[in-house]
Each structure stands twice: as C-alpha cells, then as structure tokens.
Amino acid sequence: MDFVQNFPFFSIMLSMFSGTVCSVLPRKAAKWVNTIVISVVSVLSLILLVYLIGKKESYVYMMGHFPAPWGNEIRAGVLEAGMALFFCVIMLLSMLGGRKKLHDEVVESKHNMYYILVNLLLSSLLALVYTNDLFTAYVFVEINTIAACGLIMIRQNGRTIEAAVRYMIMSLLGSGLLLLGICMLYDLTGHLLMSNIRESVHMIMEDGTYRVPLLVTITLISVGLAIKSALFPFHGWLPDAYGYSTVSSAAILSSLVSKGYIFLLIKIIYRVLGFDVFGMSHIIDVLFAFGLMGMVFGSLNAIEENDIRRMIAFSSVAQIGYIYMGIGMGTQAGMTASVFHILSHAATKSLLFIAAIGLTDVSGGSRHFIDLTGAAYRNKWAGVTFTVGSLSMVGVPMFSGFISKLLFAQAAVQNHVKMLPALIVLAVSTVLNAIYFMKTVIRIYTPAQEDKYESITFKDMKSYVLALVCFIILNVILGISSQPIVDLIEQGLSMFA
Amino acid sequence: MGANLLVNYGEAVAMLLFVIGFTNLLLQKNLIKKIIGLNIMDSAVYLFLAEKGYIEGRTVPIVVNGVQDVEAYINPIPSGLVLTGIVVSVSVTALMLSLTIRLYRRYHTLDLDEISTRLKKEGL
C-alpha cells in the first residue's frame, strides 16, 4: 500500500483534532491553526488527486482491523479527492474574505468557537465525501448539521437564532427520514458498507422481491437529503440563515454544506442503489419536477427581494434546482452536468456573498438596494467581483456558469421525454437570473447623488482583495479550461460504478 | 397483507410513532412540543431497529458459560446502531433546547410564528 493512500484518513483526523485544539489556544493562534489546517488538507487532497489520476482506479482503505463485511471503510477515487480539494479551497477563500468582517460580527471571546465550528464542518464534509459506510455517513450528516447551526447562530441577534431554529427543524426532519431510510436498507440487505449493499440490491432486483420496500427506502433517502440541501419546497429556512449570519458562514453554508448532502446523494445513487435501479424508480421524475420548479420560483422570489444578501440566498434555491434537474434527467451526461454545477455554483455563490459584504460595508452597512447606489465606485474591487459573479450566474461565456448551462442543455437534448421542459425552464430561468443580477449590477454602477456613506471596516483590505482576486481566477479557470475538469468528473463517476 | 401486519406489529407501531413524531416536529407551533416530536420520531426509529434485530428465542450477545454458537444470540449490530443514534439524538436535542432557551429569554414566548412576526416588525 502506498503512503499516499493514508491521506483521506489524515485529512479527516487532522481537521477534527485541530478543532479540539483550537478551543484552548489564544485567538490569534486559533486563527492560524485554522488557516494552516485547511491549507494542509488542500495540499494532501491535491497530492491524492494527482496520485489517483496516475493510478486510474479508486481504492478502499480499511479503518481498523476488521475486513469488509464487518469493518468500517474509506474509499477514494478521482471525484472524491477532487471534491475534497475544491471544498478546502472554497473554505479557505471564504474564511480569508470574511476575516476582517468577523471582528464586527462576532464577539471577540467567541472567535475560538468559530474556528472550532469551521474545522468540525470541514472534517464532517471530508468524511461525507470519503466514507464507504452508510451509518458513518448518517453520523457525519448530523455533525455537519450541528456545526452549520453553530455557524448560523454565532452572530447573536434575534434573527440568527430564529434562523438557526428553523434550519435545525428542517434539517432534523430530513435526517429523520434519512435515518429511517438507512435502517430499512440495512434490514433489506443486511449490510452497512456501500459496496456490499449494492450487491444485495442487485440480488433483490434480480429476484424481483421486496420491490415496494426498496422503493420506500429510495424515497426516504432522496427526500431526506433533498430537504437537507434545500430543494425548492423545503427552502423556507434558507434566506434567513444565509441572509443574517456572518459573511463567511453564509459563503460556506451556501457553497459547501448543501453541496455535501448532494454529493452524498449522488454517491448513494451510484454506489449503494446503482444508477439503473435509481433510474427505474419514479423518484427521479419527482426530483426533476421539483428541480424545475425551484429554478423558476427561486428566481421569482429573488426578483421580489429588496435585500442584496437575501436575494443571493434565493438565487441559491434556483441553483440547487439546476443540480436536482441534472440528477433527475437520469443520464450520465445529466449527472456530469450536476457535478460540474456543484463546483461552479460553489465557486460563484461564495464569491457573490464575499463581494456583497464589501458593497454593503461601504454603504453604511445597509443591505437595501436604494442604499447600494454607486457602491461599486466606493469599493472598486468588490464591484468588479460582484459583476463577474453576476455574469457567471447569468451564464455569459468565459465564466463557469456558462459551461454548466451548456452541459445541462447538452444533457437535456439526450433525453427525449424531458428535453422540452428542461430546455424551456433553462431559458426562462436564465432570463430571470439576468433580470435580478443585472438590476443589481446597474444599481451599484449608478453614480450616487451625494457622498453620504462611510465605510465601517475594511481600512486594511489586503486579505479581502486577495480573496476576491482568487475567487475571480477560480471562476475564470472553471469557465475557460472546463474540458479537463469535465473529463475528470466523467472519469470519477465511472470509478463510482 | 393483514397477516403480515399482525406478525410485524412492532414495526407497524414504530412507523406509526415515526409519523406522529414527524408531524409534531413539522406542524406544532410550540418549540417544546416540536422537540418532543423530534424525540418521539427518533425513538420510533430505534424501536424499529430493535424490533428488526431481535430474533425469537435467542438471548443477548454476551458470552456466558462458554456458549459461542451464533445460533444462540440475537443480531447485535442494530443495538450498536441504536446506541450511536441515541448519542446523536441527545446532542441534537440539547442544541435545540439551548436555542429554545435563548429565544425564550429574548421574546418570552415559545411560539415560533409569533417570534417571526415580531422580528418582521422590528425590521432587523
């Protein structure tokens, strides 16, 4: 066994234990530990990714001394390593961009808590990405929820506590369904490891027995994870949670936490149920329909919104709809488009949140559109970045959003039944996206009548500007050199099966 | 169908409890009642697991008197899952209760909808 194969385990343990260490360190040290750990984990993931691309196959890593049907396992392939790398990079940039703002938003004595929660969140995300055991996945889903709830409520005002309660309630409903689904799957198959369950599911399908329980199980797991990742009818908690928490939290929550659940769902579809079994159940059509509805209604809500952060949050609902539409198409191309959109949306949405904070900050802290007039002149970098993010969301070539829309359209053409609704809604949603994002861009580039605003923080903007520039570069890389990334995603998905 | 229901009445009860807990968590206005619903829902899953792991006429998987035959014991894995699940649900309940205390100290009510309307009035 190569030494590199230990890296997934190292990453999970490193981020988890550094979280514990952060609680006793002084504030500054905790900040550095947090930054260094995230960087180290990204480097480890990068090395693992390069190693796996060279090796061209995935491997299973035994946790403890018990072999397959009994013990716990980690599994790493190209897609897992790539996701881990991407999650770490986004998290690092979000933390960097929101660092100056953290002093305003969170009481100084609570900063250590913040770093603990971020490290815990990272470790649970990594575990969700790498694990090969369904019950471990459930436990880490719950850890993820608790850490995310902490990230929402660490900024203490009535709004965030209410948002955290609503978030917890929806999440707990989702994880209840997921837990019941996993338990039923265990009863049907007698296994908890993903590969073993898959063999048993194959046998069940060949025998033609237990069709109804299997369908119920698939429904429970899909609906549970859909609730947790805020698919359209379950998005009630989302605008408050993203709109009022600290800016780093909002960026991390919107771009990573919901994506972790979606990645788990994709993993379950491929590794536990099997792509064809999932495709044969009609759950896939339900996900498709709700995805389409989310794309339209999320955008409509965003148009009505007068608050820039809530507007970006509602736009997330629409983008989650895109991802579920891709999963719902039931083709390999649709799935590839969804995974690419996970990357593209994560890069763009965290960029928008970080840029928006720069704009609101130079407008006297107000987030209403009227006060944002001319904000892009007062904070040039944030203005440019917000424009880049908007163009990417609308789907202008050169940026990542264009590629994902292109991939979705190509995938839609392959599926004759779902082609028409998918293409129509894709077009409608693009127009709606353009309406609210361009409205904002025009607003921030309209010169203000009088110079009445003072900036609150951001005297020292170096780290903020660095984060913005990195975000823009990441977005353009995803937009211009998308082909190798798409190839990697296809390779990773084929390793899943 | 009916006969199956009678044989598996434990699982049927667990499903009923799950639905009761789920609806309570979703629809109750009072936060404490929501948390009670959450606990009923989780306990229902544990009942389901325990019911599935139990095998008629066998005993707990602890080796006494040197009996090591697999046929003598029930399936221990569901019990292990229940233990893990209990740990998770206890921590989640504690978090929910602490959030409820925070909200109650601030707004002196447990009604989530009323808190929302008040927040909108405050215009925060």
Brief overview:
The complex is a heterodimer of chains A (497) and B (124). Chain A has 497 residues and is mostly helical.
Walk me through the structure.
- The complex is a heterodimer of chains A (497) and B (124).
- Chain A is an all-alpha fold and 497 residues long.
- Chain A has a domain at 282-497.
- Chain A contains 20 helices and two strands.
- Chain A has helices at 7-22, 27-55, 78-105, 111-130, 134-153, 158-189, 194-207, 211-228, 238-244, 247-273, 275-280, 283-304, 308-328, 332-361, 375-378, 380-394, 400-414, 419-444, 462-480, 482-496; strands at residues 59-63, 72-76.
- Chain A has a two-stranded antiparallel ribbon.
- In chain A, helix 2 runs parallel beside helix 4, helix 14 (332-361) packs antiparallel against helix 19 (462-480) and helix 17 (400-414) packs antiparallel against helix 18.
- The longest helix of chain A has 32 residues, at 158-189.
- Chain A is globular.
- The two termini of chain A are 23 Å apart.
- Chain B is mostly helical.
- Chain B has a single domain (2-122), classed as Helix Hairpins.
- Chain B has five helices and no strands.
- The longest helix of chain B has 32 residues, at 76-107.
- The termini of chain B are far apart.
- Chains A and B meet through helix 5 and helix 6 of A and helix 2, helix 3, helix 4 and helix 5 of B.
Topology, please?
The complex is a heterodimer of chains A (497) and B (124).
Chain A: H1 7-22, H2 27-55, E1 59-63, E2 72-76, H3 78-105, H4 111-130, H5 134-153, H6 158-189, H7 194-207, H8 211-228, H9 238-244, H10 247-273, H11 275-280, H12 283-304, H13 308-328, H14 332-361, H15 375-378, H16 380-394, H17 400-414, H18 419-444, H19 462-480, H20 482-496
Antiparallel strand pairs in A: 1-2
Chain B: H1 2-7, H2 9-27, H3 31-53, H4 76-107, H5 112-122
Helix pairs in contact in B: 2-3, 3-4
